[in-house]
Amino acid sequence: MLSSNSDILHFSFYSFDSGLINTILDTAEHLECRFRIANCRVNRGGDPKDVVPTQKSTAVVQFTSENQTNLNKLEAKIEALIDIMDKAEATMNVVKRTAPKQTDVSGGVEGCDQESRRDVAVVENQEEQKVLVLGAGRVSMSLVEYLGRTPQKYIQVASDNESEASHVAKLAQRGAHTCLDLSNTKDLSSLVKDHDVVISLLPAPLHPTVAEECIKQKTHLVTASYESPEIRAMDQR
Fold first, then answer.
1. What are the backbone dihedrals phi and psi of residue 93, each rounded to the nearest 5 degrees, phi first?
2. Would residue 3 count as lying in a domain?
3. Beta bridge partners of 178
4. What CATH number has the domain bearing residue 209?
5. Cα-flanking dihedrals φ and ψ of residue 62, to 5°?
6. Which of 8, 38, 99, 119 is the most exposed place for a label (fewest CB within 10 A)?
7. Residue 154 lies in a domain
8. What is the predicted pLDDT for the residue at 30?
9. Same domain, 67 and 143
10. What values do phi and psi take at 231, rounded to 5?
11. How confident is the model at residue 19 (pLDDT cuts 50, 70, 90)?
12. Running DSSP on this structure, what letter comes out for residue 177?
């Protein structure tokens, strides 16, 4: 539980290639600050060869901590990094808390202004969705926590590291985990077939293997990587 005078840092950035977000998340982890992705929009640019995409991708990350001193340190480090990394195109603001965090009957949060409520998940489709997340790294943690806020989503985390997969799966309201060796095509096929969508957060060179299976099973696939020639070649399939 956050103390009544704890702040919330809202960090917005517009360039995924600057390396800024990686540095900031490492710093937050070192200072024992929690984070969650409040909003993320990935826009596909024009020609993949374009140096500057026609539309920029954006994200908002929210940081909190029981330790106000550590949160202040993180704020100072983020400001310093924004100043020295011209490519970052980032901004930050601090939302003051006036009372302890309490959930009201309407699902809002008392004691916080409207800005701090932007990350409340809204469920538009009440049908159950089964999501398979491949990979159990840091990005997977944020994704599973965000998608798993509603009971309509059943999230299965698959990784060759079963311990990490178990840890990540627990972040969802309805989460499960399994150990998966990607070279075992039978196990991969069974998992893909049993889910509505597959989100691959594996290293980019492994995406084609997953995409091939998704095409066979007619299952939607989402990745967090740029489109490779191998993936582009599958467009018409």
1. -140, 160
2. no
3. 158
4. 3.40.50.720
5. -110, 130
6. 99
7. yes
8. 86
9. no
10. -70, -40
11. low
12. E
